[in-house]
Each structure stands twice: as structure tokens, then as C-alpha cells.
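Q: Sequence in, structure out?
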Amino acid sequence: MKPLQQHVEHLFSAYKENQQIKELKYEILSNLEAKVTDLIEGGMTRDQAIAIAISNMDSIEGLIDDHPQMYIHRFQVELVQIALLYTLVAWIFTIPLGILGTIRPISYFLLVIVLVLGVVFLLLNRIKNDHWLNKATTYSIESCLRYRRITWILWGLFMIVSFTATTALRFGSNIWFMRPIRFDGPYQFAVMTLPYLLPLISIIIPLIFNSALRIFHKYEVGTSYED
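A: Exactly. Output:
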């Protein structure tokens, strides 16, 4: 790979390939090549000219549009589908645990969410009007990254609080008086460990945010899309 092309690829290594990125990479590479030609004509060697051209283009901040457009309807359909799949997996996870009566309300709640998301997905997927399919809106990449980071931080804090509270309620006296913790069988072990496992179901929330950021790029205006 030529030094200039390699440098351009390095500059864009953190960005997902789309039409805007391709055009910008081509434009920057062309400008660098023109710069090198001018410097060579001015008496420099090719290696010197390449080194100077590269040093003058060491960042692309400000060149990337931080507020691209995306096809909002297509995005909504896939995001609802992803949320439906995650919630369905969470509901299936709670089914075999239904033998413990305390988990049944959670299982029923997840089932209701699955049914609601299923209906919403079917309604959105039935829309084939070009006006809706090609409707675009602007979004901020920086805001999306910030919300995703905040969501993971809040989820991590929730898990820490949940784990601490469960441990204090279940084993606080044992820890305080340094008494051993005993389990009288598999059933009691399941009853004791279940409160630690149930909060893990909430991971579907940050996972949905992760998926949203991924499919933002997929449905950017100018990105190839197959219906």
C-alpha cells in the first residue's frame, strides 16, 4: 500500500465505512497527492514531499459530519425487532424458574412486553409506503455514544447495589457473626442464588442501546441498504 493511502486509511480507522467516508477519503488522498506533486516540482525529493504532506494532515477532526441523517422508519423496525428478541430470550430464561413462585410475576411481565413489542413490530413492518421508508432524520453520534456510556454505567451501579443489598439481606447476620453459610440441598441453593441472577435480565437494556448505535450506521442516508 502506498504511504499516502496507508496514512489516509489510518486516519479513518476508527470510522465505519459509508458513502460519506469513502468520498472524504478519496478527497483527502487526492489533496495529499496534489500536495506531494507541488512539493516535488518545487525541488524536494519524493520522500521529503510525502513526509511534509502527511505531517500537514495528521487529524480529520471537524471533517466528519457529527450529525448524519438516517432512515428513521427502517431503524425503528430493526430496533424493535432486536428489543423483541432480547426480551423473548429473557422471558424464556424465566420459564424454568417458574417453580419458584416469586419469579412468576417477572415472567408474566416479560411475556406482556414480548406481546406488546411483537404487535408493534408487525405494525411497523406492514408499512411499505415509500414516504415512510425513505423518511430521514438527523442524529448526533456524540450524543449516542454518551447515552450508551451512561446506560452501561447506570446498569453497572444497579448490579453493584443489587448484589450488595441481596448479600446484606440474605447473609448479613452470617457475615456479622461470622457464621458459616450452609445449603441443605439443590432447591435451597437455587432459592439463595436466584436473587443474584434475576437482576442480570436487565442487561437487555444496555444491549439494546448498543444495538441502536450499531444500526444507526447501517441506516445512514447514503449507505447501501437491501430491503
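The chain has a mean pLDDT of 81.
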